[in-house]
Amino acid sequence: MIALASLRQRWRSLLGTVLTLTIAVAVLTICGLLLASAHPVSPGRYAAAPVLVRPIPPADPEAFTESRPWSAEDADALAARLSRIDGVRTTIAEHRFYAQLMQNGVPTGDAQDASGWSAAALGGYALREGRAPAGSAEAVVDSGLGIAPGSAVTLLTARGPETFTVSGTADGPGLWVSDELARDRASGVRLIGLLTTKAVDLEAVAALVGGDGQVLHGDGRAAVEPPADARTRWIGLQVLLAVSVLAAFVSVFIVASAFAFATRRRHRELALLRLLGALPRQVRRMIRAEVLLLGLAGGLAGVPVGLAVTAPVARWLVRTGFEPPTFTVAYRLWVPLAALAAGVLVALAGAVAAAWRAARVSPLDALRESALDDRPMSRLRWLAGLAALAVAVLFGVAATGASGPDLGSYALYAAMALTTAGSLLAPAILPPAVRLLTAPFARGRGATALLVRQHTRTAARRTASTAAPILLCVAFAVLVGGMVKTSTAAYGIGRVTDAGAAAVVVPAGTPGLSDAAVTAAGGLSTLPTFLYAGPEPLPAAGISPAEDTLFTVGTGDLPAIHRPAAGEASLVAAITTAFADQEGWTLGGSYPVTATDGRRYSVLVAAVLSDGPTPAGILLDRTVVRVLDPSALTTAVFRNQVGSELGGLGARELTGSAYARADADEDDRLVWVFTVILIGVSAGFGLLAVVNTMIMASAARAADLRLLRLSGATRTQVLGMLSAETSAVVLVGGGLGLGVALAALAALARGLSAQIGAPVPMTIPWGTLAATVGACLVLAVFSAGLPALSRRPA
């Protein structure tokens, strides 16, 4: 009851905290529902096959690579055995290869592969017009494209543009060619579909397949979703997790800051309660009860908002490429309940320190009139702040030696620790910083500068509470933007530096470059593929003799990979030192692998490369890779001069600097959308906290403002003093936030430099910094002056 009465008296000052919790619970509800809905979906092209059999997939679900294929002969033999099972009407081994429809020299349509016509039955597709394809130059296309049978179309394949005649149209999406052509062009077989007349004994199917494959049925068929869709879904998962973690962290930080300020403001009230006989545990219980009520209020308001906004957000994620087109929202009751509970826990976590501090208020403080912070930095606060600083240093050191996703994670953790340290140590930092900032204006001992300097000294904790959300807002806005700019530039620098290229030819609307595009570009390139040790993929690449000069040989003979192997089942390769250490391969050794054609080979190691940038751990001759993987596509071609004729080849040319920036690259587009989301979440919460804290801070100084007015100060002078004081706090808080971001970005840049072997400059998003500080300044000055406008001298 005491907690409820206290909230009634202070409801206006707590609206900002409730709004923060409302938004946090809404964000958690949205992210929770989307995360619960992020599961694989079975492709429509297998809808009519109740049972699917695929090779054993890689153990790492985040590899996003195709499973090790069967050879055409092994797939035929397995399909023949499966066809003899009772209830199986027919079995179809799917042969797929890269193909895209070209119109006016531009890739069109959603299909990026073609299959043999027999595989159309797996999706239940049938001819709508014309006949099935035959020979090597006929194709069936989706009737929705509006292409009539008999028309000539261009399909872009791994070889280059090829002309086909449309023999018919089908009532489903896709491209189909004759089974013979698909078998010739496909890189092995990765799926066998079973069309049945009745329920099939799945145990019999699994016993027949044995250890050569995996049997899928029902919802389990979703496991064969395309790796590109799985990767998109994984990216969306990272976005949602990052937003959830950031929203929770920022919410805890803001609630902690708000309640720390509120507790300090209620110092005399709490001291009176202690003087009347309240025990410390009762005071803590009262604070926790208040927070619990606020958390429930924010949660009950946030859950309906989250439920209403989830569907539009899901559609936006699909449009922007963070979720595959098959993504749909599944509403589950436990998600909003969990979000509501999370909101309460966030509120309680934010108020732990406030409750502990409130319980330690001395009853004698009720007799004090001064607002002086006699101990703005307690021993515990010093220890906690220095501990957070030490943790930040540890994460920064770890970031300099990390690689891959860990590098960015360590930088983010360092920023979180530094933000916490900055807020804890702010009472010790802010007064001298404000004095230094206002020193140029205090030479004539003006009243405004004097009041600003004295207030930050005597009310250090209150000033620190107002600076904390500004520190948070600036730190994360600058950090997130800087991390993306620095990382993007680093990877671009690494790629262009490695090749020494003046121009780079990259795909345009296609997943890779065909052989025709590579020939037209006429530069240096590699042809990526995979070899398999068991079911696990080993990245490999094909190079021509011209690319040999890009690599430094440690031991062995690199040109040997271009000479014919001793036998048909042998491959000659060069490996990197890192790959040798990881897999245990040695110079002169022979190792069994399965290639993308599904056949087994022995790899003879002819050379070990020194440490340095390489496209893959295994290098083979390019012509050998083309035979093993007829559908392989080149990622990019590096040229020494600008000017390539690439019309109708699904390619475009960029200058070396443009490629380094990679502004138009799809991955970079997704990264920048991700960046905007994170900046929006962190800055949005931060700006809300700035407004809330400034209003509370000005309301807490009502007596001081009245005294100034009674002493003869005009309203304009009071507003000027508040504006000057607020501006100083914003600038100092923004400076601390910038320092936090710079420290984390410096660790990231050093780690990237070590990773790519080239200097990486730290990129600071000055525009983001200026916009964030400007928004904080405008909102803070307005919020601080708003209560003063309504104050009349009594």
UniProtKB/TrEMBL annotation:
Superkingdom of source: Bacteria
A Pfam family assignment: FtsX
UniProt membrane topology term: Multi-pass membrane protein
InterPro entries, alphabetized: ABC3_permease_C, Macrolide_Exporter_MacB
The entry's keywords: Cell membrane, Membrane, Transmembrane, Transmembrane helix
Main location: membrane
Domain ABC3 transporter permease C-terminal: from-to ranges: 242-363, 677-790
Localization terms from the record: Cell membrane
Signal peptide (UniProt feature, chain positions): none
Transmembrane segment boundaries: 234-262, 291-313, 333-359, 380-398, 410-430, 463-484, 670-697, 718-749, 769-789
Family the UniProt entry places it in: Belongs to the ABC-4 integral membrane protein family.
PANTHER family: ABC TRANSPORTER PERMEASE YTRF, MEMBRANE COMPONENT OF TRANSPORTER-RELATED
Name of the protein in its database record: FtsX-like permease family protein
Species, as recorded: Hamadaea flava
Source lineage: Bacteria, Bacillati, Actinomycetota, Actinomycetes, Micromonosporales
